[in-house]
User: What shape does this take?
Amino acid sequence: MVLAGAWCAYTAWQVQGDLDDAVRHAEAVQAAVEARDPEALRDELDALRDASSAAADRTSGPTWAVLTKVPWFGDDAAGIELVSDVLDDLAADGIEPLVTVSERVDELLPRDGGADLAVIDELSGPVSQAAAAFARADERLQDVDPSGYVGRLHTRFTDFRRRVDSAASGLRSARIATDVLPTMLGDEGKRRHLLVFQNNAEVRATGGLPGAVSYLEAEDGRIALTHHVAGSALGRTPTSVLPLTDAEVELYDDYLGRYFVDANMTPDVPRAADLMVARWHQEYPARPVDGVVMVDAVAISYLLEATGPITVDGVELTGDNLVDELLHESYVRLPEPAAQDAFFAEVAGETFARFTRGVGDPTAMLRALARGVDERRVFVTSYDDDVRTALDGTAIAGEMVTDAGVTSPQVEVTLNDTTGAKMSYYLRYDVDVVPVSCVDGVQSFSTKARLRSTAPADAADLPAYITGGGTYGVDPGSQVVTVRIFGPVGGTVGQLEFNGEPMDLIRADQDGRPVGMTYVQLDPGQTVDLAWTMKSGAGQTGDAVVAVTPTIEKRNSREVLATACRRAD
Assistant: This one.
């Protein structure tokens, strides 16, 4: 028994060494990809395969089978066996195709005004293979409850699972991109898209007011901006451009369908896109639209971090200063709206030109694009049936989930400026959702939101275009924000507390989702705390997905929270 115990301990020590080596080589693979060093990349991949294969072999034999039955250690041994097997599969089937893609990543991005559609088609196979391998790994890891693992194993397991989940999510997006980009870029004929720039200084549910619109034409991979208008130029209409539902009228009045710049008060991106396109067709019937791409100012700043600075109207714009210059300083420097619109148009044109001409560091560009998508700052709606089907259910599509059969509770907290000005530049907020219990397949949540204004005490002295000048009944320097809470399908939104005091919510039901709405006024420097409870619909026992409105703060606006039902089990 002593010899057997010693042998088991020795085997466990060897497995730990193999896994440590595998982690080290996996990190070296990532470093080699970023350094664009193909020779080091292949060497490190071979070493990763060797280490992960050794760990998988040792944990698949009779010795390890015995360890999985040992009291107090069996579940840890089973966890190590799973990690070893998953890592071995990824090294063989997931990372190898990624190496192939990484060696040609510079060919994926636009260059000299267009993208090579043949390259995208060639690399779609390796991307799909890698996506499938990481999806399988993610599913296996997500099925495991690591709460019983010893401290060090628990930490390393959860970190490994987080990394695989992130990679799987990114690869799903990459697979979809390689599937839909050829169509969107005109491999079967010219495609036209509205490129809508969202201004976070006047916040809307999807990020910001649609301040500028460019008409983008693509054919055989060649891309061009052929027309540009200010969002305000599309004005208002006597009646809604599309019929509105009772819930939409209750939540947004008819502004949603009458004002182009209010179309994205709804967090449902396809609905916002439909309203924008309907208005566009009224004004430009000879310019058809095959899709809408929405991007905010912060996402543009990420692109400039990768492409390098641009100079517009004598101002050098970089990834660091673009948000401040575009969303605040330009209003101070250019008091006339027409001059502001011209500045925005030139920024949009220069950024687009820089992007399509090609960049020296394609890895940085892909990272910038991925960050914009992950933070929900880039959305795409397509009117091609195949493309729309491919995008359904993805973060970039931005649909509001209303499926009664969903098993993961969906929560959204949105902000819309009600000041009629650009004071959202000074808006900061945090939302904290905590799954607290699970009873009979219904999860309960405790939720808090803190909103604050970072406006200076003398904000009233800022130009009227920034403060609103009191036009809509808000004192200059203050701002009013409409907060809408979208609870899970079939669930409930409970009582709201405003700075600890009960406050009534304006309530509605949008396609089975309970909605609570209130207004928050923030004076310069003021902080307001909101708190409420929620419940999911019946059978929604999965992890909760929480999405909030992106603002000028550079952080993720989507979070997945571990279900309370797993703890209840």
